[in-house]
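Holo prediction. Input below; ligand is S-adenosylmethionine.
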Amino acid sequence: MQRFFVPPSALTGQQVHFLPEQARQMSRVLRLRPGAEVWALDGSGQEWRVRLQSVTDGAAWGDVLEQRRVEAEPQRVRLTLYLGLTQREKFEWMLQKCTEAGASAFVPVLSARSLVQQVSEVEAKRERWQRILREAAEQSGRGCVPVLQPAQRLTAALPQCLAQHALTLLAWEGEHEQGLGAVLRAQAEKHPWPLQLAIWVGPEGGFAADEVQLARQVGVMPVSLGRRILRMETAALAVTLLALHYLEDDAA
Ligand code: SAM
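Structure of the complex:
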């Protein structure tokens, strides 16, 4: 059954009024007719089963039949991914795949070796990237659309991380002692749910030595993802899947 994120204002009493572009998609693309059922989500982790009463090109509404919590939305971990800014297609691939895998927020990072060095380039894509997040959340059955935070410079964001997250890790191929899995397993028992977890993944050129040193200085733990060098998009998806596996799905 199709799923649509709607603004909280769309839910009035026992009716849901969908957005014009959603009505157009229902009418023209999905060819939904009155009597069909869809899920409406307000992004808070709840979903409403709705029987459509009216579907036209510009408007669609229906009656609420059932309300429930979205099972697929992570409850035990809120993962924020700090991702080195890179060329558009690769960054968008990471937004989509890591949303499917359960990430809750993304912070585009400008670092010494990130391919993109202008915040303006990021803000120009914000609307497009938020649409990618919403569509990936709808497709994967999430209850919330991940948040796209403003782009930040590594040197400014790293020191602030410890105050914003219960645990902050930095994926670094130069780390040979601490593995991500072992750290997550050890932390899984310690922290109250949901664990506010942040994981940094560097750009294609990696983190500069002074950036890793800054991480250690401010208390951010470097972790290894194994002895092989992963592409940044592989690493981003790997840390998301591992974090959700150890802290959510496996622990469920
Ligand atoms: N220095 C790397 C190289 O020699 O090709 C380039 C960085 S790698 C392509 C991109 C990012 O993925 C790194 O900054 C790191 O965050 C993460 N990464 C890749 N392999 C990793 C590993 N084995 N352990 C931890 N992090 C890794």
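The chain has eight helices and 13 strands. That is the main takeaway for now.
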